[in-house]
Amino acid sequence: MDGEALNTFLMVYRQRGFSNAARALNRTQPAISHRISLLEQELGMSLFERTSNGIALSQAGRVLLPYAERALAALQDAETAVSALKTENAGPLSLAVVGTLASTSLTSILKRFAADCPSVDLALQTTRSTEVSDLVRRGEATIGIRYDRDRSPDLHYERLGLEKMAVACSMDHELAGRSIKSLAELVSERWLAFPEIPGQREIWASHVFSVFQTFGLGEIEWTPVDSLTAQKRLVEAGFGLALMTESAVAEERAAGTLATIDVRDLTLTIPIFLVTRRDGFLSVAANRLRDSLKSDYLGHYEVSAV
Q1: Looking at the domain 73-161+271-297, which fold is it?
Q2: Which CATH class is domain 163-269?
Q3: Separation of CA 190 from chain center
Q4: Which of 69, 85, 99, 111 is most exposed, with the fewest beta carbons within 10 Å of its own?
């Protein structure tokens, strides 16, 4: 079993088919099928099953998956570690961040880092919290920044701080910019919230009606909207209220296109974490970026180390 075989296996799984994997790897479909066949012969078990929707991992494939991800991440660590011997501040470095945390604070840090380490090939991608962890776990991202954390033994989390939640409203809402005593005063409003996606729960995007239920206020009228940008545009247009992180609405508030309502009995916060792979290799440049993120990126939040 070698790295090429494991990479082919993972690509077939992630691309959900042999044809897609062949295109992603710039190889022919017969070559991909043959490589998987050789791996299955070596293991003595089938790794994929045919279904009405295409292919799915067999029981053996599900067992192999986490080991294959760790093995390829370790190989990437080895390559990075050896490359780091040539120079301390060069090489590839990938950062995965939840979209709403990719603020001006982050861009200023990355600008300074790029100036200090011009030979580092820095890549940034934004995604959901669950995918941030998956990218770091698979070795496709060196460092991640996300809301909350999972309990994966493969990952190391360092708490950066807490972010407050805010009730967003249109500029012409009668309560825009005002302070109210209780969430109960908003129970008759129309709300916008993210729909449920099984297995992809985003903590700050949880259904707003669960907050009302926690307060004992019962059901509310709400509309599912699966895009943060769409939610903000609809709130700006007066189609409803939304519960968002302060960073998610910072630009709109500064531009005067969106307002918030201060609800005095609503004190929701979400922890923000920096994610790295447990026992994974971090180059000098990666450690430098990690330290900068820890000290500067969320300096305006209440910092509490875990």
Answers
A1: D-Maltodextrin-Binding Protein; domain 2 (3.40.190)
A2: alpha beta
A3: 28
A4: 85
